[in-house]
Prior knowledge:
- With 404 residues, the protein is of the alpha/beta class.
- The chain has 15 helices and eleven strands.
- It has helices at residues 21-35, 52-62, 92-99, 115-123, 133-149, 159-167, 199-203, 207-210, 220-228, 230-243, 281-289, 324-331, 335-351, 358-370, 379-399, and strands at 11-16, 41-48, 66-69, 85-88, 104-107, 127-130, 153-156, 182-189, 250-254, 260-266, 271-275.
- Helix 2 (52-62) links the parallel strand 2 and strand 3 (66-69).
- Helix 1 crosses helix 11 (281-289), helix 4 (115-123) runs parallel beside helix 5 and helix 13 packs across helix 15.
- The chain is globular, with a radius of gyration of 21 Å.
- The chain starts with 10 loop residues before the first strand and ends in a 5-residue tail after the last helix.
- Residues 158-160, 235 line the site of magnesium ion.
Amino acid sequence: xxxxxxxxxxxRLIVLGSTGSIGTNTLAVAEHLTRTAIQPFQxxxxxxxxxxxxxxxQATQHRCPSLxxxxxxxxxxxxxxxxxxxxxxxxxAEQLVHETDADTVVAAIVGxxxxxxxxxxxxxxxxxxxxxxxxxxxxxxxxxPLVEQHGSTLLPIDxxxxxxxxxxxxxxxxxxxxxxxxxxITLTASGGPFRNASKAAIRNATPEQALKHPTWSMGPKxxxxxxxxxxxxxxxxxxHHLFGLPADQIDVLVHPQSIVHGLVExxxxxxxxxxxxxxxxxxxxxxxxxxxxxxxxxxxxDWSMMSQxxxxxxxxxxxxxxxxxRRVIDQGGSTGATLNAANExxxxxxxxxxxxxGRITELVTDALDxxxxxxxxxxDDVLEADQQARRFVEDRLASSPVSx
Length: 404
Ligand code: NAD
Ligand code: MG
């Protein structure tokens, strides 16, 4: 479809986690598509955790009628020109999703906090652009059947998963066309700030060092996940649920340039890859406009300057978090929720200087060792496993505190 015959009726958009890195990039893409009249968007709902002033400013800029703020105490700035409905408290985003008519919901809250509103959007049959990978890691066995059952469309925003999806849309779960024979998919990893660091340096890294990502600019939690490579573990599990592939068909390669985002190797020997500069506006636009290809706002690559694309297998000795993906996929059930919540709690402890970086993967491994796998059949099952893992990490930190 060309831009001139693109549909012009505005699409109603909710952005969950609109004040974060993915959220602000999503609003930038929606604004670009609206301003250029390529595909207008009407922003109908925005949510944040505590960033009330930014949320208020976004509401004014996008004339958004419904807002949600998880923190019940932060005062919300009055705005004489606009009188939005403001949902407050821990269930505010979920309430907003239930009470706001929308076509597309972008799930860009960080962590398991994003699960309930994302699940609500799926159950309402919305098109969901999924950045919040923790939703699938913690609740994949619950989420994917609901996508089918409610006729929702789940489009990946995580760049590697967007790449795989673009190379082979038939792999998307809700796509009923026959799946082509795939040998394997490969997710690339930048290697993070410690790609060439020694084991000891990685173990003792400080938040300042871990938050310096070489190629991507992202929120703090995913940046720490990139430093431990737990991000790639989460992404392997995410890919397993999204594309219905077993662990041994999902590979990871370290690719320091972050230009090739994902590769699909077909059984006939052909491989397709998706390339682009490390700019999340591209996968966001793909999700917002799929299946159309419309003019975008990200910087264009200069391929003539691209002299080097390197790939190497990850070092499992220095980045043992990667070993946990297969275990979670093979054990299934509540194991993903345990890994995810233990990691969130450990990352939080690291950012608060209670533990060194290397302790994160150890704590997550200990939580998996100590927790039996149980079936996941409801959101309550996920939340129970999540709480148990957080308590486990907290108890461990209380009994053996190690400061960074
Ligand atoms: P961020 O920290 O920049 O933003 C997080 C957003 O979630 C903010 O709007 C914040 O207000 C909101 N939020 C945080 N805790 C909340 C809570 N308890 N309740 C309600 N809202 C809450 O994070 P980000 O980098 O934008 O990442 C968002 C998600 O997208 C994560 O799951 C991340 O893994 C994924 N992702 C991010 C990138 C990236 O480039 N940033 C790339 C791929 C995937
Ligand atoms: Mg990614």
